[in-house]
Design goal:
Length: 358
């Protein structure tokens, strides 16, 4: 057992912070730490919080921490902040809104930069979540940057995805755009004391209803029975009831995070999704699909790193050859892949020589 991993399992806060830093920076023997910790993961409920900037995600996350701590749960937060395209740095300011919990030994807050990654998450977020899972967190909240309706990466790593919207910010338009329905398990219309809150809720309800009709029509096109359509239209009830089989239909909560209003009801809806996810066959299928997607991402990253390391100068030669229009990027990529498959026996320029092979 790696000594840092051993301390993480002993819930040493400083060792856990160091492990998160090594994993985020991809330095040292971070992989050995992750391998030792992995058998002790899988117990935490991972809650993703996303939505447009300014919707109140950080304030709402702070309130969620309070509710979870009131239930006696150990909470970890991964707050992702945007990275400057000029300096590569990040302000990491989300934690400022969570200062009330810094003295709590059962709350661990970690800020990460996106490092230019698309989709609002850096590649290390999944691994940092696993470190915090092994640390003993009952709930890991991942707050994303909030890049708009195409921010779907969070759905591939979180058990439950909460999309935060606010009236008067154009969210009623965002609600009808592709992607947001697939992203959300629960919607929170935050700042619900503002004008336009009722309209925002109606727009979301309409979007959910239209999404259900599209899914039913798709099912009929594939020849499913009417009884099956009815079963799929059902959703799990909120916390306290038995989860119902069938796909999850997104639910909506109203909150005013600054006044801590509606947060308890929101947690009930989140718990309803968790009950469905871990208590139904449909939920189990969804968890397996997300694990499959996570493995694909892990494999893609590992293959990319291995290919870049193995190809070395040949990759640079390919860039120069494409820039000189000696070869198109598609052919160059095919030759590089072929070279990588042949055990990396590549000399500089051989893989991209005009008209040549590998």
């Amino acid at each position: 057992m790696h000594p840092i991993a051993d301390k993480v399992l002993a819930r040493d806060m400083r060792a856990t912070a160091r492990a998160c830093r090594l994993v985020d920076d991809r330095v040292g023997d971070y992989a050995a730490i992750l391998k030792d910790l992995f058998p002790h993961t899988g117990r935490a409920w991972v809650l993703g919080v996303t939505g447009n900037p300014g919707a109140g995600k950080s304030t709402l996350t702070d309130r969620l921490i309070g509710v979870f701590r009131g239930q006696g749960r150990r909470v970890a937060v991964v707050a992702v902040d945007p990275t400057s395209p000029f300096t590569g740095g990040a302000i990491l300011g989300d934690r400022i809104r969570m200062q009330a919990h810094f003295g709590d030994p059962d709350v661990f807050i970690r800020s990460l930069a996106t490092r230019g990654a698309l989709g609002g998450l850096s590649r290390s977020v999944v691994d940092v979540v696993r470190v915090l899972d092994a640390w003993g967190a009952d709930v890991v909240v991942v707050e994303t940057v909030g890049v708009g309706q195409d921010e779907l990466e969070i759905t591939r790593m979180a058990h439950t995805t909460l999309v935060v919207a606010a009236p008067g910010m154009g969210d009623e338009v965002q609600a009808i755009k592709a992607g947001i329905l697939e992203c959300a398990d629960v919607f929170a219309v935050n700042k619900a004391d503002r004008d336009g809150a009722d309209a925002a809720v109606r727009d979301l309800e309409l979007m959910i209803a239209l999404g259900g009709e599209v899914a039913a029509a798709s099912g009929r096109a594939r020849g499913h029975s009417a009884a099956a359509h009815h079963a799929r239209a059902q959703r799990a009830p909120s916390a306290g009831g038995e989860p119902v089989e069938g796909p999850w239909e997104p639910v909506i909560a109203r909150t005013v995070a600054t006044r801590n209003e509606g947060v308890a009801a929101l947690v009930d809806k989140l718990e309803g999704h968790r009950a469905w996810l871990f208590g139904t066959e449909a939920g189990a299928a969804r968890r397996e699909e997300r694990l499959r997607e996570a493995m694909h991402v892990q494999l893609r990253d590992a293959l990319t790193d291995a290919a870049v390391a193995a190809l070395g100068p040949a990759l640079e030669a390919a860039v120069h050859a494409v820039a000189r229009r000696e070869v198109d990027p598609y052919t160059a990529s095919e030759r590089l892949v072929a070279a990588f498959r042949s055990a990396g026996a590549v000399t500089p320029g051989a893989a991209v020589a005009p008209g040549g092979g590998t």
